[in-house]
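User: Fold this; tokens only.

Assistant: Input:
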Amino acid sequence: MRVGLVLEGGAMRGMFTAGVLDVLMENGICLDGAAGVSAGAVFGCNYKSHQIGRAIRYNKAYCGDRRYFSLSSWLRTGNLYNVSFGYHTLPRELDVFDQAAFAADPMPFWVVCTDAETGKPVYHLCGDGGEEDVTWMRASASMPLAARPVEIGGRKLLDGGISDSIPLRFMERQGYERNIAVLTQPPGFVKQKNGAIPLVRLALRAYPMVAETLKTRHLAYNETLRYVAESEAAGRTLVIRPPKALGVGAVERDPDKLETVYRLGRTEAEKHLESIRQFIRSGREAP
């Protein structure tokens, strides 16, 4: 039986996920496949490239750098996070993404995006971690209103969290009967209805199906949480989540806050370490 890894997004809440993944890597824990959404994709790719500490390192180093994200970038380009710096200069020159290691690792790694024309999820199986895969990762993290749609292969794509925030069912459809799900919201979290839907409709008038999906996103998200809870109770899913609200969002310029969220992820992973090992072992031993 194969054991998968499901990585929720959440912008800078993804530093919690980075902490969890670093502990897994430090302890030689390898999963059979993974799916990442938004921050779960752009930070989770470091799990496949075996780069311990990279996600927290570069985010702390550049969170105060206006080249990384800024209002001026958003006004000039429509992207709060600067595409040239964040997806070219940073991973190629400043804190290099190990494409060779990513390509060499046989673990399948999917990223989840949302088709801007239909509002439906799109799942991309990454190949060698090259330019095309990085573009898919960028699309997965392109939050509506904060980023422009990313065009790939004739499609216009946005943040995967719009349409499939926690792709547990997707991983099960791929044959991963057991999964470790790293969530970025605390126990008992209930997503509320977006109160800015009229503004969202106006801003996304070119993409009405995305606006429709966002209108009911809270219902879909809460239903997915119920499914995760059922799967957890049945022993098919092991969930790692923060014990309390993380207090960071799309933008965070304080490196100490990022470090705090990252350390909390490490603490939770270390607390669950033996359970994780047992969950993987029993899953792989099952007929």
